[in-house]
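Notebook p. 47: complex prediction with 6-O-phosphono-beta-D-glucopyranose.
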Amino acid sequence: MNNPFDMVLFGGVGDLALRKLIPALYRAYLEGGLAGDSRILPVCRREEDVENYLDRAREALKTHLRDGEYSESVWESFSKLLRAVSLDISKPDEKWDQLGDILGADEQRVRLFYLAIPPAVFGPCCENLSLKGLIHSQSRVVVEKPLGYNAQTSAEINDKIGEFFPENQIFRIDHYLGKETVQNLLALRFSNVLFEHLWDASVIDHIQISISETVGLEGRAGFYDETGALRDMVQNHLLQLLCLIAMESPNSMSARNIRAEKIKVLEALRPLVGDGVDENIVRGQYVAGGLGSQLVPGYLEELDAASSSTETFVAIRAHIDNWRWAGVPFYLRTGKRMEKRCAEIVIQYKNVSHRVYGEGAGKVVPNRLVIRLQPEESIKLVLMAKKMDSLEMELQPVELNLSLSETYDSFKSDAYKRLMLDAAANNSALFIHREEVATAWAWVDPIIDHWRETGSQPHLYRAGSWGPEAADELLEEDGRHWFNAQ
Ligand code: BG6
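Predicted complex, structure tokens below:
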């Protein structure tokens, strides 16, 4: 169990707080990971939000927790940790002093300032925390994407926060890094001699990293239309996954060592500029279509706009120019309103160099390692074996299947829970250093510049499909195809 800490949750009635953070804290409490004398101080602007905070938090828990997690008795005791306060983030008035009084003078007690607010107010918020003397050596600030809109705005945000908090007290979240299977990916790579020796261009044909979503805009139309899939998902989640797959073994699992290896991968990503953008990237935007039994509107209808060139889908062929990965394409793909919700990494091995069985034994399917992060968490290895009960020598693909969600009954992973407790315990291994953010933007920016300069328009795809045909063609050009989740 963590030592008790105080969490000041700016943006206390926001979507992130009610949908993800409060449920994650409840889970931490339920599982004994949150000391009973910890305090959670959601910050709301309006007095009335403070008055009915407990009702809203309780409703949010009932809606967003999984079946069986909510109980009145746990809520009774958990709710005692919650104490909403009202203040205006941009005005350094006496309300901040009241917050200071609640926090008290104990300099050894950990304080987390969670900024679940728009980046435009990160600056004033940190400035007022500093002005009111609320930052001490055990204070940490937790921030989340969008950390800027491009390299420049991101640097401005990081500089601003950096005026008040040293880098080792800044915890930048990418919630994908808190997912259980993502951490398992590192365990798989660096604790098994088997894989570490079969992890390079000599045996791997290519790698696919796909995050497909079935949701559309979810009430975030304004934000999303300004952002698009490349900034929303690739600059952060997909590039982070790519780093974990491609990086060299760190000397240890310390934050410093892991970050150093991730940055090397980002620096080795071959830049996509000019025509290279059109040749290697497909953008898409969904139109109305059938998703399961439901007919869902297209992007423009959801947005309520006549036109928009924002991409809701992107497929990329990327290369990492280093010794280990020379010649191995990394295909990245993500999209909204796709056929299935799934996040999956496929490591496609090369085929055997010589076929010892004749044609009659059937095709030899190359080995494939499939790491699924969601909706269920599993690791699967596709191997060739003899077809049982057959007198003839017949080969067939079989699966070595490690289904984590089935194996562990009480498998209750929650990325935010994990990351908040890590921040409280000062463990920054799963957080992102500002240099990583900057290097990722440096790769993404020229792509967006090119789209803007050329007036690029997205290919249309039907909601409920696997994206535009052009994305299939991108792989077909290389004699490959996407492995769509079953
Ligand atoms: C967020 C994006 O970072 O990740 C959302 O802003 C996206 O657009 C979400 O829906 C996906 O997260 P998860 O954990 O549901 O795959």
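Notes: The pocket of 6-O-phosphono-beta-D-glucopyranose is lined by residues 175, 213, 215, 232, 343 (CB under 6 Å). The chain has two domains: 5-175, 179-412+434-476.
Next step: compare against the earlier run before touching the bench.
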